[in-house]
Every structure is written in structure tokens, then in C-alpha cells.
Amino acid sequence: MFTLRPAREADREALYRICLQTGDSGQDATGVYDDPALLGHIYAAPYLTYAPAFAFVLEDAGAVGGYVLGTPDTRAFEATLEREWWPHLRTQYPDPSGVPREARTPDQRLAALIHTPRTAPDALLAQYPAHLHIDLLPWAQGGGHGRRLMERQFAALREAGAPGVHLGVGERNTRAEGFYRHLGMEELARSPGAITFGLKL
Q1: Domains contained in the chain, CATH given
Q2: With a threshold of 0.85, does the pTM exceed it?
Q3: Spatial contact of 3 and 48, defined as CB atoms under 8 Å apart
Q4: Helix (H) or strand (E) run with residue 94 in it
Q5: List of residues 6+ apart from 170 with CB closer than 8 A
Q6: Which of 44, 54, 68, 70 could cross-link with 149 by S-S, CB 3.0 to 4.6 Å?
Q7: Which residues form the N-acetyltransferase domain (predicted)?
Q8: pLDDT digits (tens, 9 = 90+) for 159-186
Q9: pLDDT per position as a tens digit, 57-102
């Protein structure tokens, strides 16, 4: 029986694993990256560390099969990571800025995000200051579990005073796009390979 609960420190390894196994536009990225922890360093672990009140997991028979992670204040979260999270990782992963973009390995492309993190545009944050990430393994998909996770996160962000939330999705992940639209999220922007969705809370 699936249960939805707040994430705890003991879930950290599962968050890394799920992030990797859904990291190729929703598909397993285990064979894509040499370092299996890189995706989780960027897209999962920081939320458990610095925004634990907005980290929820889906569990069945003691196994975690999905999560939703977020923060009500994207700009403050970015500043926290710049101050406390990225510096240590920058000592572990060389800056690939000297390698032409088209020649970078998948690991180097992620390392570039550690050394030069993406920041959300001011215009987006004016109305949608919160953001989130959601990932579910195949065995946890369906049955309305994704919706339950999202609604739990929406409620937490709303209670924290966030007027709107945004997220990004790979353009190839058409299943996720349909899911977000079904939840009432609207497309806000499109860039090469990615779409930004938003929802007023």
C-alpha cells in the first residue's frame, strides 16, 4: 500500500537513486553518466538538506518509489546553494569551461551546472517564486500517486505564502508534459530542449 510522507535523512540514498533512474527525460539514466551521484547532487539532495519541509516521498512496502521536492523561494534557495552547497562540490568536479560545449561528456555538462548554476529569470519569479521537482519510478507511476505528491507540495507551498510555482521539463518527456497540463499548469516558456510550466497557487 502506497503512503505519502515527509522525506527524512534516511531517504537520501533513495532520492539519489530515483533521480538517476528517471534522469533521462523520465527514463533511466544509469548508462548515461559515469558518476551516478551527479544528477542527485544537483536536482535532489540539496532540497533534502536545505528545504526539508518541502520534501515528500512515496513509499510502498518500505521502498521509496518517488518524490516531490521544492522550495517556496527560489531566489533565496539559489543563494543558499551558492553559499553552502556548490563550493564543496566544485572541489570534487573540475570546471569544464575550457572544453567546447559540443565536446563535453554528459558528466561534464552536469559539472558545468555546479560551477555555473542556472538561475531563474526575475520575470518568472515575480509571479512564480516557488519551484519543484517530481520523479517517480515506473512501479510507482499511475494510480494517481503523482497527483497526490503534487497536491501535497502545492499545499505546503501555499501555506508558506508562495503565490505561484514553476518547474522545468525536458521537451522529450511528453508524458510528463501531459501530466502537468492535466494538473492545470500552463506553459510559460520554451527554450531548446526544455519547457517551463507554472501554476498560480
Answers
A1: 2-200 (3.40.630.30)
A2: yes
A3: no
A4: none
A5: 25, 26, 176, 193, 194
A6: 68
A7: 2-201
A8: 999 999 999 998 888 888 999 999 999 9
A9: 999 999 999 999 999 999 999 999 999 999 999 999 999 999 999 9
Can you list the alpha helix ranges (DSSP code H) found in 22-73?
38-43, 45-50
Taking CA 80 as the corner, what is the angle to CA 75 and CA 83, rounded to the nearest 5 degrees? 125
Q: What is the pLDDT of residues 139-159, one digit of tens each?
A: 988 889 999 999 999 999 999
Which candidate, 159, 157, 171, 160, places its Cα nearest to that of 199? 157
Residue among 54, 67, 55 at smallest CA distance from 2? 67
Whole-angstrom CA distances from 131 to 72, 97, 198 are 7, 27, 9
Q: pLDDT digits over 10-59, tens only?
A: 999 999 999 999 999 889 999 999 999 999 999 999 999 999 999 999 99
Helix (H, G, I), strand (E, B) or coil at 20: helix
